[in-house]
Amino acid sequence: LQDEETRKDYDYMLDHPEEYYRHYYHYYSRRLAPKVDVRIVILVTVCAISVFQFFSWWSSYNEAINYLATVPKYRIQATEIARQQGLLNKTKEKGKNRRPKEEIREEEEEIIKDIIKNKIDIKGGYQKPKIYDILLFQILLAPFYLFKYVVWYCWWIYSFTIKGREYGVEEKLYIIRRYMKMSQSQFDSLEDHQKETFLERQLWIRENYEVYKREQEEELKKKMAMDPRWKRYRRWMKNEGPGRLTFIDD
Hints:
Order of helices and strands: HHHHHHHHHHHHH
Shape: extended
Main location: membrane
InterPro entries: DNAJC25-like
Mean pLDDT: 78
Largest sheet: none
Keywords: Chaperone, Membrane, Transmembrane, Transmembrane helix
Protein name: DnaJ subfamily C member 25
Subcellular location: Membrane
């Protein structure tokens, strides 16, 4: 009875002894209540998710680097840069300092990967992970991002709605991205010539985007119609199909 809430329940029980079901409920709810602070549980969970996020993104980034190191286009460029900087010559030592070929090959591979990391800007889901993108920092910085978005939105309304200024390249690409319902990372992963095509066709204008969208849908239908796998699938759906019962005599 040292706890104030428990004393209140006890006094209520003395005043209302007939409500024994209520007394049982309060008694066991307090006995079985978790002793750990919910805020600590939430903090630990968020931290665990953030750590998993960071290492998962870092693994994806390394996979992308390893793949690019096997692509002839990027490998030849990286090898040429390494030769110009004299990095590959340092690995080939002679005389007593001569090392095994396997060790030299591994060192050269690391040099090529380091050059690819520094020279190629990987975008999209395989970009280099940033600590500010994990869940923990996103939650901590949420008020700042909200304030930043409100300021940006007010500036947008003032500049283009009230003042009637013309859109710049960044503003046009932003509107196009919103029409396409793509995230910033997805849009950044597109090739530069694709973005130039969007600008040439003036897709920030809603009518032009609707025309472009219908064209893409028609092109996709044609590709699916010519794809042998889709032909086999449609043939199977027509002849067999899920849910169709056939009875074959033995």
